[in-house]
Specification:
- The structure is a single chain.
- This protein is mainly α.
- It contains eleven helices and no strands.
- It is globular, with a radius of gyration of 17 Å.
- It binds 4-amino-5-hydroxymethyl-2-methylpyrimidine.
- InterPro entries: Haem_Oase-like_multi-hlx (IPR016084), Thiaminase-2/PQQC (IPR004305), Thiaminase_II (IPR027574), Thiamine_Salvage_TenA (IPR050967).
Amino acid sequence: MDIFDRLRQATLADWTAYVEHPFVRELGAGTLPQAAFRTYLEQDYLFLIQFARANALAIYKSRTLADMREAKGTLGAILDDEMHLHVRLCARWGMTRDDLERAAEHPATVAYTRFVLDCGQSGDLLDLNAALAPCVIGYAEIARALAPSLHDDHPYREWIADYAGEAYQGVAARARGHLDRLAERYLTPARLGQVQEIFATACRLEADFWQMGLDSARRAH
Ligand SMILES: Cc1ncc(CO)c(N)n1
């Protein structure tokens, strides 16, 4: 069992509430209201800006070149791949990159991103990567679970296919391996509870992020 599996086991209720959130189920079934997806995607673009900063912070917090390269790889994947998906999908609704960058951050976006950044500022690279893990590894798992139900005219096909694709799955697998190596170096029995709490909080903030999308569609009706 690697450290990711141990953290997931220890926080299983929070993990499950995140990866099996009603937003995820409706996304997979293709029944998610478009308004919910649009709000989610707009906020997720703003999320990714802060998430890029968190990975830049991971470079700053690194004591080895190998750790720096891991964070740089994830940072590159966010800036050069993942954000392009958002811009591409939003362009279909007439939203430009500028529109996205001008949007106001929802409290759920602020809460999650600033929590992750604070874990990195107040803690070390293990704390920061424990806060980042539910995000990267969680999305890879969610998309892999949804991919078998994809069909040609699925409304969210591109989103699911991108996160289920080889490139993103590779980023997540690397992050998982890196977290394990960080745990070997830095995790002590005394720290385990705190690292679990960071992981669990990030899972809860992920669930809140999905909920924000659902709630916005409810308000629009
Ligand atoms: C909220 C959130 N969590 C995880 C990911 C995966 O990078 C994302 N794009 N957005």
